[in-house]
Write a structure and sequence with these properties.
Blueprint (H helix, E strand, L loop, with lengths): L1 H23 L4 H31 L3 H7 L3 H27 L2 H7 L3 H13 L5 H17 L7 H25 L4 H26 L11 H24 L4 H7 L3 H13 L7 H27 L1
Helix pairs in contact: 1-5, 1-10, 1-12, 2-4, 2-9, 2-10, 4-5, 4-8, 4-9, 5-8, 5-12, 6-7, 6-8, 6-11, 7-13, 8-11
Length: about 300
């Protein structure tokens, strides 16, 4: 259990970089996500090919083709659909950051616990948990205090709320679907599914929000490389593994710590500390408290079990 929670908090630490990178990369949010998923899909394909070649040399059969043949069209659609939820979450998340700042975008992510408490009983058909809802309300109070410090970022806040709702759905569905598939193969199909879905939506998206430049320039390549290798492939693999061992609500609520890492980084890189006040600090303290309480409650429950 200790290893599972260590991996969970490691994934949260890595996720803390994504908000900063989203602002550093100069592409439109949808184009940024397209490149992120395309590069991740290619790298995962190459990695699985190399891994399968080693198994093929030992077993005498094409391990890569065998791993693909074991999935039917419904399996592929399921994994690809989960990837589309992740894709939409990323688009709204980076749009929130670009419409406001890193602090606003990542703090909105703290609402994931609230949406999970609402969605999970409906999707997984289990009893509504008043305790989980109470922890979520503590998070909402923290966010409310944070957003008292400035009313200029309403669009960014709205986009961030949608982003957190989409991630809650992704985590719940990913947990259900991920139990039936190999994490590495599932990640490949998720990236492909998100990439195909976003490619179909981009013409419509461009009609309402012109995307501008389609290709990275300058330091965008370095930032994208780090985002893809560490914050996409590494992070998604960790999330899939963690969600197989730890309840989705605990994972999502623990991810409320992501704003802490992102805000600290943004303070040094973008000097966003100039825009923060005591209300913001108190809100962050409430969010951290909700995470600590939920973690302790879950550890205690598991120890008794």
């Amino acid at each position: 259990m200790k290893k599972d929670y260590f991996l969970l908090h490691l994934s949260v630490f890595i996720a803390g970089f994504t908000g900063v990178l989203g602002r550093l990369i100069t592409l439109d949010s949808a184009i940024l996500v397209w490149w992120r998923m395309a590069a991740a899909a290619v790298i995962m394909y190459i990695y699985l090919r190399i891994s399968a070649r080693r198994r093929t040399m030992r077993q005498g059969t094409d391990a890569f083709d065998a791993s693909l043949r074991k999935y039917n069209i419904m399996d592929v659609l399921q994994m690809g659909g989960v990837g589309m939820l992740l894709c939409l979450h990323w688009v709204f998340f980076y749009a929130s950051i670009k419409a406001s700042n890193v602090s606003i975008g990542v703090v909105c992510f703290s609402l994931v616990g609230f949406f999970t408490a609402l969605f999970e009983p409906i999707i997984n058909k289990h009893r509504f948990s008043g305790r989980e809802f109470l922890f979520s309300l503590l998070t909402i109070l923290g966010i409310w205090l944070i957003f008292q410090f400035d009313a200029r970022y309403r669009l960014g806040i709205a986009l961030g709320v949608v982003s957190s709702a989409l991630y809650a759905l992704f985590a719940i569905v990913n947990q259900r679907v991920g139990k039936h598939y190999e994490p590495k193969n599932m990640l490949l199909w998720e990236m492909i599914g998100g990439l195909v879905g976003l490619s179909c939506l981009l013409p419509l998206y461009n009609m309402f929000i012109p995307v501008g430049r389609l290709y990275p320039v300058g330091m965008d390549y370095a930032y994208l490389a780090f985002m893809v290798v560490v914050c996409t492939i590494g992070l998604c693999l960790l999330q899939i593994i963690v969600l197989q061992k730890i309840p989705a609500f605990t994972v999502n609520l623990t991810y409320n710590l992501e704003p802490v890492y992102s805000i600290i980084l943004s303070m040094f890189i973008f000097s966003e500390y100039k825009e923060l006040n005591y209300s913001f600090c108190i809100g962050i303290a409430l969010i951290i408290t909700s995470v600590v309480l939920q973690t302790l409650s879950e550890v205690k429950r598991r120890s008794k079990a």
